[in-house]
UniProtKB/TrEMBL annotation:
<dbReference type="Pfam" id="PF03022">
    <property type="entry name" value="MRJP"/>
</dbReference>
<dbReference type="GO" id="GO:0005576">
    <property type="term" value="C:extracellular region"/>
</dbReference>
<protein>
    <submittedName>
        <fullName>Major royal jelly protein</fullName>
    </submittedName>
</protein>
<dbReference type="InterPro" id="IPR017996">
    <property type="entry name" value="MRJP/yellow-related"/>
</dbReference>
<keyword id="KW-0964">Secreted</keyword>
<feature type="region of interest" description="Disordered">
    <location>
        <begin position="103"/>
        <end position="124"/>
    </location>
</feature>
<dbReference type="InterPro" id="IPR011042">
    <property type="entry name" value="6-blade_b-propeller_TolB-like"/>
</dbReference>
Length: 398
């Protein structure tokens, strides 16, 4: 899951109604076969690739459903079992609501948990500095990551990096977990395993383990090759992404998932590849050195917009370069779930209990922060869904 710099003053309101839902047919899916296994990784791209793939056309069509459309850049969505929908905005087009619940009546974004939390971007004492990720946890609460800096690449604000728990019954913040941060940190994503939460730092490469009972958190694989971006990030059509100053875009540890059994953690820089590690090695500070020696390369994937894990252990990975969603089984079998040009930078993925995969087409590669300063966004920003074979991993969310 990524975030980008803002464009300038907004020219649209935060409370605009969503556009009507519609269904659109898409291209046939393309299954692929991957030669894979959990190979020992020495932390360098000189390792033999984990996968090779071939593809053949299938006549089975997929139907992509447009869930809603937004006049602001949405890069993440959460849908509860009861049907409540929450979204997070990148602030690319200017300051505004950061986290919102979509009105069940008309789709209007309502600041969540309230206006106060959405009212600032510089003072963590009064609200969110930069909401980057939202998740529904296995406890049924909404969890918000405050990345800790007003924008990616800007200096971290002291005390701003936080994991925030919001009770969905009372709609109030019940606990705030401060996250240890460095001057260049940008806390990016989170997944859960029992009393542990695992977070990624896309600004200062590393993983962060958080004990949800004690609040103690520590860095793992800090500055390691596996958490460091060492490849070019590619957008639609294979174009290399560059900042406004024309330097390459680099986001370090970005994606993270936990297997349904809770025994494996998968993670990757935004430019790939995907690595795996025994989850137990992330659960105590004294195991950090051992964790460094036990990372494995799982899949030699390229640029990744977002990921999700289903109850059967299938890892869904978005491929912004080719406008598609890939599925990788725990044993390494690899196939394309759906490919469609409308999936312009598919970002943070979400799986619902009724076996649907939600896909925000966030167009981040068309924003100035990743497009050499040029704004080539094409509004509205659309969120789609597609049927899949399983629901969410129960240890991730219900």
């Amino acid at each position: 899951m990524l975030t980008t710099r803002r464009l300038g003053p907004p020219n649209r309101t935060d409370r605009r109604r969503s556009l009507p839902l519609k269904r659109v047919a898409v291209s046939p899916w393309v299954p692929c076969v991957m030669v894979a296994g959990l190979l020992a990784c020495g932390g360098c791209d000189s390792n033999p690739p984990v996968t090779t793939s071939t593809s053949t056309q299938s006549t089975d069509p997929n139907v992509l459903t447009e869930v809603f459309a937004s006049d602001r850049v949405v890069n993440g969505i959460v849908v509860t079992p009861g049907g409540r929908r929450f979204v997070v905005y990148t602030q690319t087009e200017g300051r505004g609501v950061q986290v919102a619940e979509l009105s069940p009546r008309d789709g209007r974004p309502i600041p969540y948990p309230d206006q106060r939390w959405n009212s600032t971007r510089h003072d963590p004492r009064t609200g969110l500095v930069k909401a980057n990720t939202i998740r529904l946890g296995p406890d049924g609460a909404l969890w918000i990551i405050d990345g800790g800096a007003p924008d990616f690449g800007e200096p971290a604000v002291r005390g701003a990096a936080r994991l925030i728990r919001v009770d969905l019954t009372s709609n109030t913040v019940t606990r705030v977990y401060p996250i240890s941060q460095k001057s260049t940190s940008f806390i990016d994503d989170v997944r859960f395993r029992g009393n542990m939460a695992y977070l990624t730092d896309a600004g200062s490469p590393g993983l962060i383990s958080l004990n949800l009972q004690t609040g103690l958190n520590w860095r793992v694989l800090d500055g390691a090759p596996e958490t460091t971006a060492r490849r070019a990030m590619l957008g639609g059509g294979g174009r290399e992404l560059r900042k406004p100053d024309n330097s390459p875009v680099k986001l370090h540890a970005d994606q993270i998932e936990v297997s349904p059994q809770g025994d494996v953690v998968y993670f990757s820089p935004a430019s790939g590849p995907i690595f795996s590690i025994d989850a137990r090695l992330l659960d105590a500070p004294e195991l950090s050195d051992k964790a460094t020696r036990n990372v494995r390369k799982f899949a030699d994937f390229g640029t990744i917009g977002g990921t999700a894990m289903d109850a059967e252990g299938t890892l869904y990975v978005s491929d912004p370069e080719n406008h598609r969603i890939e599925a990788i089984s725990a044993t390494g079998n690899h196939r394309t779930v759906i490919a469609d040009p409308r999936l312009a930078w598919p970002d943070a993925l979400w799986i619902t209990r009724d076996h649907r995969l939600y896909i925000p087409a966030a167009q981040l590669d068309r924003t100035p922060g990743m497009n050499s300063g040029r704004n080539e966004l094409q509004f509205p920003i659309r969120v789609f869904s597609v049927p899949i074979a399983a629901g969410p991993a129960p240890n991730d969310h219900n």
